[in-house]
Design brief:
- The chain has helices spanning about 1-10, 15-25, 30-35, 35-40, 45-55, 60-70, 85-90, 120-135, 150-160, 180-190, 210-220, 235-245, 260-270, 275-290, 290-305, 315-320, 330-335, 340-355; strands at about 75-80, 95-100, 110-115, 140-145, 165-170, 190-195, 220-225, 245-250, 270-275, 325-330, 355-360, 365.
- It is α/β, with parallel strands linked by helices.
- The protein has three domains: about 1-55; about 105-305, Rossmann fold (3-Layer(aba) Sandwich); about 310-365, Winged helix-like DNA-binding domain superfamily/Winged helix DNA-binding domain (Arc Repressor Mutant, subunit A), CATH 1.10.10.
Length: about 375
């Protein structure tokens, strides 16, 4: 059975819906692969597709079968498999099958995609982790693309929150890209699933990642963009989410931050502006059956103010001067009226408390 589905999954131009129609005509995947080329052409398949089914390349087939036999957590979830994600079936270009490492049941959980810049700011990464941890704790699986920056923070946050996470890959299932995320991928396989439509041996080619992005959005009930430049892969994911009828959320930022421009564009185009996890749960509650108390709790958690020195009047004045932009200590001193020595000492204390983040170049950014 796996061999037949591997042949169909490796046939260029076939989608899940196309294979569903072929199955209705021939009865099974095995019957499709055993059919004469003329019979396949009679259903409307082009010559190349029909030839690929009747005369498949044995080398990639052997590699895929070897991967499936390589470990108990290696799975092929085909269009005919009950574990195939229901939301993914809804899109026109759904893949014929998914290669899954980990628990395929994770694909059936209600999922929220969290995506953003590979070059995330420390504050953006912290925001992604915090949102992912809270929302995963509320029962949403967090889905992303295993990339640097926001993707990695979202996966890590979901696991830190005791929840599940799904990574959609732009490579074959045996490869981890970027390579430095090998340990992260191992953790995801233990706490959710790694999945891809690309067979073993597929390299991380640039054209694969926009295709991956459509699966990230299709698997999820909504997509949250944390940080994104005006032109980025995260915006492709958000656009596909909108085309697929999914919810789109975006976190705004400073008008001076280039990583906020993509989010601002999305908000102008109709994405929901998000300030707390409760904003997302409120929107998704009718779809997920989430109790209203969870949304209220999320709002309380996300908006709680930091206590400690931040409540002191002088520290409050410094934080007001700092604002939410990234600024250097001299600018804070000028805005607040505090001496440079006072500002330096206070910033150090706030940094130790977690109220302020020191960035490269000696600039500071306020943290929630």
């Amino acid at each position: 059975m796996s061999r037949a589905w591997l042949i169909l999954a490796g046939t260029h131009g076939l989608t899940g819906r196309t294979v569903g129609q072929l199955t209705a005509a021939f009865g099974s995947a095995d019957a499709i692969c055993a059919a004469a080329e003329s019979a396949l052409r009679a259903t409307g398949l082009d010559e190349a597709s029909a030839a690929s089914i009747t005369r498949p390349d044995e080398r990639p087939l052997a590699a895929a079968l070897a991967w499936l036999d390589g470990a108990t957590d290696h799975h092929l979830v085909s269009w005919a498999d009950a574990r195939y994600p229901a939301l993914l079936r809804q899109i026109d270009d759904a893949p014929v099958a998914l290669f899954v490492r980990g628990d395929p049941a994770a694909l059936a959980l209600p999922q929220l995609a969290i995506v953003g810049s590979r070059h995330a700011s420390p504050g953006g990464a912290a925001t992604a982790r915090a949102f992912a941890a809270h929302l995963a704790g509320c029962g949403l699986a967090i889905t992303s693309g295993l990339a640097l920056g926001i993707d990695a923070a979202a996966h890590a946050g979901a696991m830190a929150g005791g929840g599940r996470t799904v990574a959609v890959m732009g490579t074959g299932p045996e490869q981890v890209y970027p390579p430095q995320h090998r340990d992260l991928a191992e953790a995801i396989a233990r706490n959710g699933a790694l999945c891809t439509e690309f067979p073993p041996g597929t390299a991380p080619l640039p054209a694969h990642f926009p295709r991956r992005n459509r699966l990230i959005s299709a698997l999820s009930v909504g997509t949250l963009v944390v940080e994104a430049r005006a032109r980025s892969g995260a915006l492709i994911t958000a656009r596909r989410a909108a085309e697929q009828g999914r919810e789109v959320f975006a976190i705004p930022g400073s008008i001076h931050n280039p990583l906020a421009r993509g989010c601002h564009r999305l908000i102008r185009d109709g994405a929901k502006l998000v300030e707390s996890a409760g904003d997302i749960l409120e929107e998704l509650a009718p779809l997920l059956g989430v109790p209203p108390t969870l949304a209220a709790a999320a709002d309380d958690t996300a908006s709680a103010a930091h206590t400690g020195h931040a409540t002191d009047p002088d520290y409050a004045r410094l934080l007001d001067a700092l604002g939410w932009d990234t600024v250097d200590a001299d600018a804070v001193s000028l805005r607040s009226g505090l001496t440079p020595a006072e500002v330096s000492s206070m910033l150090l204390i706030l940094e130790l408390e977690g109220s302020v983040q020191l960035l490269p170049g000696g600039r500071y950014q306020r943290q929630r």
